[in-house]
Specification:
206 residues
């Protein structure tokens, strides 16, 4: 892939992300407070990536993954994770006990391990190896655990109000955090099967 084509794809991805962000800001289902706490981390990540673009550019593979995860967050922020329409329909059709958009999101967040591997390969002395993959897997799980802790702290700070419960998204499951982490782990392990796509992207970017 030529650099010009790669840049065009990245600008297109940014355009799509901005469109979805603007859409998410239009009459969010649970109000702007829930939307803010859901999308703020992703917005901060975007601002950081854009500000560092000329100094440190990721591969197109990593930008596609980031775009997907950010869009998932914006959709969840707009509807709240427990009320995303498609997954509500799936819940009703299959007579499930909960809306599984949150679980689906945690599973896909396993793709983050590929982005972390790229950063480790380019910014540390680590080389392509199972050890690097394992370290990236641990970092991915640590980030997921930190987010679960933030969700838990929000219940204490917010005194378990409606907005806090919408952000937490447990839907009555006391093992929600553990299941989220388990799905993140499964998603991360499965994502490692696609690591060759990253390696090809790194080789072409040299």
């Amino acid at each position: 892939m030529s650099r010009k084509k790669g840049s065009s794809i990245r600008y297109f991805l940014l355009f799509v992300v901005l469109l979805v962000l603007i859409w998410s800001l239009i009459k969010p289902v649970e109000g702007y407070r829930v939307l803010l706490v859901e999308v703020l981390p992703s917005v901060l990540v975007l601002i950081f990536l854009i500000s560092r673009y000329n100094q440190f550019r990721l591969t197109t593979v990593s930008y596609v993954i980031i775009t997907l995860l950010v869009i998932l967050t914006f959709i969840g922020g707009h509807y709240s994770y427990s009320k995303v329409p498609l997954f509500t329909w799936i819940k009703d059709y299959f007579d499930l006990q909960r809306n599984h958009y949150d679980r689906f999101g945690h599973f896909l967040k396993g793709l983050m391990v590929i982005v972390i591997i790229e950063i480790l390969l380019r910014k540390t002395v680590l080389l392509k190896s199972k050890t690097t993959n394992f370290i990236a897997l641990c970092i991915t799980l640590a980030i997921g655990a930190l987010y679960e802790i933030i969700e838990w702290l929000s219940t204490k700070i917010g005194k378990e109000g409606k907005a806090t419960k919408d952000f937490l998204g447990m839907q009555g499951d006391i093992w929600d955090a553990q299941k989220d982490m388990a799905l993140l782990l499964v998603g991360s392990i499965l994502s490692l099967f696609f690591i060759k796509l990253l390696y090809k992207g790194l080789e072409k970017s040299r």
